[in-house]
Amino acid sequence: MDSKAEKYTQLIKTKAQRFGFQSCGISKADFLEEDARPLEKWLKNNFHGEMKYMENHFDKRLDPRLLVEGSQSVISLSYNYFPKNEISTLDNFKISKYAYAEDYHDVIKEILREMVTELQNEIGEFSFRVFVDSAPVLERSWARKSGIGWVGKNANLITKQSGSFYFLAEIICDLPLVSDYETTDHCGTCRKCIDACPTDAIVSDKVIDGSKCISYATIELKNEIPDSFKNKMEDWMFGCDICQDVCPWNRFSTPNLQNRFTPNDSLKNLRKSEWKELTQELFSEIFKKSPVKRTKFAGLKRNIKFLS
């Protein structure tokens, strides 16, 4: 690998740290050979439920060169979202920690674009696309390949130093860079996430039946929640953190430093009786810039009603 590639690689990693990313790893933009069969099997088993979009762009999910012409490198980044204070669950419905505040898609994309602008000022023009949980990109696979962490039994990416409460993002570009190595798996014989899941959504090591997952039922599902979820939701009205909360590696999680991830006061103060009376107006006010917008007012009301 030439010195220019080494220089650019170091520059990108230094810049990522300066822009607040927790980790930065690099992989060669290539076909994800080992992910093709598991993805095909997962879809065949209908583990994606009603997430029909998962069936689209199968080839693009496995080959970033089809997403960004001439791409040579996938830069994987992680961004901490672990909250300074968790929202009280006393007489309250629960919301996944990632959805406490501003929509991460917007926050992290802005940071990435600013970072790439700086990189282009220093390196010169290069072709790229940025992704934050968007487009057909197998984020965990690229993050695993780049050595950021390993895929745990709950199918989340886990890092020894910081657990799993972080977002993943990618820059796919035509810069030739120095690739990192995969890390080793440190789940061992631990089964805490599998045993804690109230709906048995973790069907085997690293395989999730999405159609059984509380996050799927409260966010992705557009129809009525099936009766099979009755009395198993444990008060989750949007998303679910159970498998992450019980993971021993998350004892190393530290509060994020991003002001835009500070929860809305109303979110902290409302209780069950008030959530049950939620109006469209209040929903729009509380979740104005939140990922909760995804489930829409009708979806959140449906979730609350199902829990009540």
From TrEMBL:
Residues 174-207 form the 4Fe-4S ferredoxin-type domain. InterPro entries: 4Fe4S_Fe-S-bd, 4Fe4S_Fe_S_CS, QueG, QueG_DUF1730. It catalyses: epoxyqueuosine(34) in tRNA + AH2 = queuosine(34) in tRNA + A + H2O. It comes from the Bacteria. Pathway: tRNA modification; tRNA-queuosine biosynthesis. The keyword Cytoplasm applies. Its main location: cytoplasm. [4Fe-4S] cluster 2 binds at C197, C213, C240, C243. TRNA binds at K222. PROSITE patterns: 4FE4S_FER_1, 4FE4S_FER_2. PANTHER family: EPOXYQUEUOSINE REDUCTASE (PTHR30002:SF4). This is Epoxyqueuosine reductase. The gene is queG.
